[in-house]
Amino acid sequence: MPSTLRITGLATGLDVDNMVKQLMQAERVKVDKVKQDKQLIEWKQELYREIIGDLMSFKNTYFDVLNKDKYILSSNNLTPYTVSIDSNAPLKVSATSDAQTGQYEIKVLNLAKSAGVNKNLNDGATLDSKLSDVDINASFIKINYNGVEKEISLDSSMKLRDLINKINIETAGAVKARFSELTKTLTFETSKTGSSASLNVSFLDSNKNVIETLNGQGQNAIVSIKEPGNSNFIQVEKETNTFTIDGVVYTLNGVTEGDVSIKFTVNINSQPVIDKIKEFVNKYNEIIDKINKKLSEKRNYSYKPLTEDQKKELKEDEIKKWEEKAKEGLLKGDSILENLVFNLRQAFFEKVEGIGITLQEIGLSTSSDYTQKGKIVIDETKLKTALETRGQEVINLLVKTSDIAYDPNKTYSSRQDRNKQIGIFQRIKDILEDNIRTTRNSSGKKGVLLEKAGVKGDVTEFNSLLSKEIKEKERLISDLEKKLFDKQEKYYKDFAKLEKAMQKFNDQANWLYSQIGAMNK
Fold first, then answer.
1. Residue 511 burial by Cβ neighbours in a 10 Å radius (0-12, 13-18, 19+)
2. What is the pLDDT of residues 41-55, one digit of tens each?
3. Whole-model pTM?
4. In the structure, how many helices (H) and strands (E) does the chain have?
């Protein structure tokens, strides 16, 4: 507001500034009330955002697939089985909960291979060479792969790299073409491996007569495996180099020499899994505890946000303590947070379909203390036994997936079919998505909590419901401040008129006194 230099009270002797201030106090109360309302909304938004931050940190720690060590939805992170194998072995081995413990032996006789053919080009060939310059004078290429036929038209002005890209696109990657500048070889190869993979490449002239035909056939992986308790190797053929047999996952990347076998041991070590589950549950309990405290915290209505004048009369630590009291209970009974807690509790105790084990059987339950409201208690002995005797069932109970995808357009309660099928930790991830999702659904809405309070670094920081309420209060405060200024100016003008009238009266009185004095001489 513009400032005005005023010289007041000279004629009347009145303390005009103080009188105007007193007159304005009643009007100032209206502005202070709106400012207090705005402050409460800002505090409420801060409390929401603190919870949002906790949930986002929880999600990023345990539900980010790139965070491999902490990713709680990985069955590998929850299996109690470990494998000891020479790091230089030509294969990798991992074990699921269906594996048998003990020592294994394996011989890798063949790797699975795709069907491939080669065409030799001339010495000057490069990726930017025209087809006519590298002795490819065909008008068409017909490719048969795994029972599928594709015919691709060629142009003599087409470059070699264009041909390669066209083949990769036309076959949707089922046949990959590549060129080696070192060997001057154009290679066609199926993405599928195994003996059922086949490839036939024919170069045709403009009349579609065959100029040249190249044929290739895939190859199976062949291994011999001796499992614990067996005295003989059993030979197995597989179409891929990664496969699972009796709960053991094999990934082949080389063959063994001669009759040499690779030995490895499958062991049970449930403690790392228990530690991972404990860490996850402890962090979950921290968040639940924090939210529950906010939901049950009583509001002290005698502690309202301080006005600017009130703050001037207090010390900094006194202001801090007062505001801490004023913030209490702002989220008491909040419907969004109550719904969040309810859904999280339901996620733990609603039955997972097709799983023959319960939460109680693996040692997880709610606290018997009612005040803990949904916090999870772990019986480590039960959990250890369940992991070591019914490991796969434990994994399924916690991280089982569903063919029904998460749908942000539906509420948690309306996704009954998916909820019944997925494991407990999968359900928790869905609930987090419902509340702190940064992507939009078909209605343009993000997570419920983000729509309510927003989060820094996202567009909701400025267009959430609470942000809009704050802006509305700021607009109202601005309007009231303008009205206050106008009214204050009116008071000063009124007093100025009084000053002017009093000055005129004083001047007249002085003249009269001077006349009377002259008459008495």
1. exposed
2. 999 999 999 999 999
3. 0.75
4. 14, 17
